[in-house]
Amino acid sequence: MASRVLAQCVRQLPRSSVRLSSGNFAVRTAAVPVLFNPRPLSFIASSQRTRWIEQTRISSSVGVFCRQYGDLPPLTIESIKERVMYVLKLYDKINPEKLATSSHFLKDLGLDSLDQVEIIMAMEDEFGFEIPDVEAEKLMSPQDIVQYIADKKDVYE
Amino acid sequence: MANPLRREVRQLYKNLLYLGREYPQGADYFRERLNCAFMKNKDVTDPKEIRKLVDCGEVVIKELGTLYYLREYRTMKKRFYEEELLGLLNIGRPID
Fold first, then answer.
1. What is the ipTM, given to two decimal places?
2. Do A133 and B35 touch (CB under 8 A)?
């Protein structure tokens, strides 16, 4: 009985992988690159086992069972930093030569608190989520912004 | 500047910026004027004065809201009513 259950489980596993690779249902029961543990299979009738061994073809596209959903590419700290610096360079009140990741908006770049509000708004537009005022007040350098966005978007390295 | 007031001024500036994006004469024009208006009152330290200015700002927000609403109303009327009927109703005047 355990073998039957196991066989059923094993048979169900490659179904999702086969949909990904091709519609060939002859490969259905056999595209299992992982589970070739001989011990439970010994309980299965020998005819079935030979069929399995014959038809085992490792579908190269499926080493890991994965589903592919539509989404943006995952954020990395590098990409966040690039985007933040790019947006800052486009801002006309900032001198792009003086801009560095650790430059303070008010002290180093000579900006105003109102300009800082505008910068945070530009970041909200770029990354597509709202930054509440309480936390926006504290973001005073590009490094702070990168850190904040990484925290909010669960990006760790 | 007292902290709650500072926050309110920021909030006001932010709201005005969001509204100014759709300003008919251009978002940049609006931003320039907004900046000038805020910079003029940069050195005001009396909380009552600040409160008054913030209220002025709120009035401006209301006015912008009505402006956009009216603009929307007028375009919709123009689109869905025929010319003669518009003339009768006196709506869709060339002021917009």
1. 0.74
2. no
Is A133 annotated as catalytic?
A: no
Of the listed A71, A112, A144, A151, which one is catalytic? A112
Query: A34 at the B interface (CB within 8 A)?
Result: no
Max Cα separation, chain A? 81
Cα separation, B91 vs B87, whole angstroms? 7
Q: What is the pTM of this model?
A: 0.63
Contact of B51 with chain A, judged by CB distance below 8 Å, is answered with no
Please name the residue of chain B whose CA is at the shortest distance from the CA of residue A120.
B14
Q: At what angle do helices A113-127 and B3-20 cross, to 10 degrees?
A: 50
Locate the domains of chain B by residue range: 4-89
Instruction: Name the band, by pLDDT with cuts 50, 70 and 90, for residue A108.
Output: confident
Span A78-95, pLDDT tens digits? 999 999 999 999 998 888
Q: What is the pLDDT of residues A20-44, one digit of tens each?
A: 444 344 444 444 444 444 444 444 4
Give the CA distances from residue B38 to residues A41, A140, B14, B52, B55, in Å, rounded to whole numbers and listed in that order.
79, 20, 12, 13, 13
**B10 part of contact set with chain A, CB < 8 Å:** yes
Residue matched to tokens 């309980």? A43
